[in-house]
Design a protein that fits this description.
By secondary structure, the protein is an alpha+beta fold. It is built from three helices and three strands; from the N terminus they run βαβααβ. The chain has one domain. The protein has a three-stranded mixed beta sheet with strand order 1-2-3. Helix 1 links the parallel strand 1 and strand 2.
Length: 104
């Protein structure tokens, strides 16, 4: 997978989000341009949630080995994390929840 920098992130940031429980580093390595790019990980939030209430609350299956198709609760966690990143970037004085992993 290769991306060109032409026009990406010019008018609005490019948001790249990783699958639940997966490391964000491989995505950061593939993206050569980092200006106006937000990397969002779903490893920490899902790991914490699974410890608290169990994987079956967040995944319907584990088709990929370490993650799978999300339940409504899993999809909500993804959406809340993304919303926190967008809110935190557009409104930096607003309280935001979630982890932002910026490219640097």
């Amino acid at each position: 997978m290769f991306f060109t920098a032409s026009g990406i992130g010019v008018f609005c940031p490019l948001i790249i989000m990783q699958y639940p429980l997966s490391d964000i580093s491989p995505l950061k390595e593939k993206i050569v341009f980092k200006k106006n790019v937000l990397f969002v990980e779903n490893k920490t939030n899902f790991a914490r949630a699974i410890v608290e209430s169990g994987a079956e609350d967040y995944f319907e299956d584990f088709f990929a080995g370490d993650f799978g198709h999300c339940t409504a609760k899993g999809n909500r966690l993804i959406a809340e994390t993304l919303a926190a990143v967008i809110t935190g970037e557009l409104f930096p004085n607003a309280e935001a929840v979630g982890k932002i992993a910026h490219g640097s």
